[in-house]
Amino acid sequence: MARNKVQFQKGLSEIDFDKAYGNETQCHAALVSWRWPGGFECPDCGGKAHCVVTRGARKLFQCNVCRKQTSVRAGTIFASSKLPLRLWFKAMYHLTQSKQGISSLELARRLGITQNAAWKMKHKLAQVMLERNATTRLKGKVQMDDAYLGGERQGAPGRGAAGKTPFVAAVETTDDGKPHKIILRRVGAFSKFALRKLAGTALECGAEVASDGLKCFAAVTEAGCKHTPIITGSGPQAAKTPAFKWVNTALGNIKMAIVGTYRAVREKHVPRYLAEFEYRFNRRYDLAAMIPRLACVALRCAPMPYRLLKLADFQA
Question: 72: which of 175, 229, 260, 283 is 20 to 30 A away, CA to CA?
Fold first, then answer.
């Protein structure tokens, strides 16, 4: 039986990572080339003529026109961080090359920093993924299903049960029926309003959506999509319906990874955890390119201080 080329791709080994981003100078040079691919450009006046001012370990770029000083970190997700860039690159490596993610506690051990610092770093990078994922749209044939995150609680079971966070998973498949892209979006409830809003931002007009018999999924037609409801019933057999093979596989992998890696996640941070899985899945075809791609987006994301990271429902 032939091996899955995506699953068995070479990826980026730790040795290759160290060769490319093993010290602070290499990491700084990489960020400069990604932030200003056409050469330095002053964020205030747009001037290109500049000089480099060295202050201890810091390198500042001073515009020769307006005398504005800036750094490669300023105005980006890396702003105000005292951690070396090589640790940021290490964090990006672990977040992108690990299929099941990495907890902040494990990240702290590997980087040799406190868990609090690792948590901030991880969630800032997850916020970058979340903002990047916002532009993803699925087209063609799409499998869609409702799901929950959260353990069992006392009280009424089923949809709307306390302690559970509802979210929607949708998988775009290729012409030969293979999974291509995925979206994972938390919703306030499984309602027609929520599904209409999601379809308007995450699905291309004309997408052919297949879902179970939950009535709220019919709202995708209001966004110009086609909808085919398939009654699956309930219980274990419902998850084996061929029409939902890939979305059910994805949901099983996500839930297993969250339990195995994080044990539990707080409801207000669910969008970022889902964003990690979505980001990695949609870029799984080239693992080695994930670090430069993530860094390029991070350089174009606004700074994210801790007071915003800890806010509930902040998705920017």
Answer: 283
